[in-house]
Amino acid sequence: MRRTSPGTHLAVLAAAQFTVMLATSIVNVALPQIRDGVGLSGDATTWVVNAYGLAFGALLLAGGRAADLLGRRRVLTVGLGTFGAASAAAGLAASPAVLVTARIVQGIGAAAVAPAALALAVGLHPPGAARGRVLAVWGAVSGAGGAAGVLLGGLLTRAGGWPWIFHTVAAGTLAVLVATLLLVPPAARGAAAGFDLAGTATSALALTALVWALTTARGHGWSDARVLAAFAAAAALGAVFLRVERRAASPLVPPRLFAGGTVAAGNLLMGLFGSVWIALFYFLPLYQQQVLGEDPLTTGIGQLPLAAANMLGAVLAPALVRRVGGRAALVGALLVEAAGMLWLSRIGAGGGYLADVLGPSILVGLGLSVAFVRLTALSVSGVTGADAGLAGGLVNTTRQVGGAVGLAVLATVAGTVTSHAGAHQAQSAALTAGYRTAFALSAAVLLATAALAALLLRRGRAGARDTDPRPARPEDLSRTEDLSLTD
């Protein structure tokens, strides 16, 4: 394998992350066409989205630990192969069972890709400003992937039908897989240790039960017997997981991960932040289509300013951190995003894209990207190279689970408001009332997250000027990715 530059490695790894994020939103605007194409019932249609998110969120910790122990490029390539094959199968699906199963397998592949790619990307540079630039790229492609999914979903659905959504993802994944094999050198494995099978199984089952309960509650209500049983199972399995971890020789989530740096604070804040992120890309396209009357393609094009603002914010994030400090940059970004959400909470049933969507989308995109870069940096700060994959899996898990919680709660509240408003208002006005409430609550969550971030980071210097407050030490460098080593 010929030697290539770190910039080339980063471009390939960022493309892998972009593909995973794309798959979370690309189906959103095509759900009616997918429902009719494979004969899904109304309630089952949501599982085209939920099946992917369920498998993705439940297995991220296992994917991160496997990357550390088995080799990150190896896990990345297996994950890309699984993800791409499942995407192709989804595009060929002619029945609900095949489509939902393919989406589950797609989520399993994504759970391997996301933490392995992040660990490899972080390993390209030691702690410091260079790593800050890596995380800026990560923030740009992560946010842009969500927005681009809405655009591509609308464009492909209109041009060739819903199967081309999945065929295009499969083709893109194949290209990333080939580039990974040709351009990204193998990396060092973590220290020899046993794989915590019991911890992996119990954590995956607990997260599966939790995410299933949250997503099902959106359609069947919080008092549904199945939802309550799933919450009880999640709590019981979570208790078993904690017990297993205390006794395990090589726990899935070792205590050393939280011994230094700002991993705990970063993940807590990322969970709150994620609860708003995923909901944004759910409610905004619905408002554009169901109230403003836009078709899927126009809705997708309307996401471009948000994507552009997101990428701009991520690019500017390192310079902003150097100028005002990491704590101020994070708090300011959360406040800017909250301002955009408050603006969206003023949308009207008789409004328009330019008056109601464009301006707040730009504010949300700028704030979202800077906040994501800072929270990712906090979540990997102080982590040794041997645990980089696990740290990447953990921060992705908190974002996914936070997103599931936030979307379930906000969708339930918005649905309740719409039902009450529908008794004495037109449908478009009732829907708008629900969406306004969801955006207002999202703004409240962001304001609370900003206050919590200011409190948690008040005494420490973590993230004050850099992505990692410690100077790079020889032992740190020896434990990050050595691009000359093999799997």
Automatic annotation (TrEMBL):
Gene3D superfamilies documented for this protein: MFS general substrate transporter like domains, Multidrug resistance protein D
Instruction: Write down the membrane topology.
Output: Multi-pass membrane protein
TM stretches of this protein: 12-32, 44-63, 75-98, 104-123, 135-156, 162-183, 195-215, 227-245, 257-284, 304-321, 328-345, 357-380, 401-423, 435-457
Major facilitator superfamily (MFS) profile domain: which residues?
A: 9-461
Q: Which InterPro entries match?
A: MFS, MFS_dom, MFS_trans_sf, Sugar_transporter_CS
Provide the residue span(s) of the region labelled Disordered. 463-487
GO annotation, biological process: response to antibiotic
Q: Which CDD domains match?
A: MFS_MMR_MDR_like
**Cellular component annotations (GO), alphabetically ordered:** plasma membrane
* Classification via PROSITE patterns: MFS (PS50850), SUGAR_TRANSPORT_1 (PS00216)
Which cell locations does it reside in?
Cell membrane
Gene Ontology molecular functions: transmembrane transporter activity
Q: Which domain of life is it from?
A: Bacteria
Q: Which UniProt keywords apply?
A: Antibiotic resistance, Cell membrane, Membrane, Transmembrane, Transmembrane helix, Transport
Name of the protein: Major facilitator superfamily (MFS) profile domain-containing protein
Identify the species of origin.
Kitasatospora cheerisanensis KCTC 2395
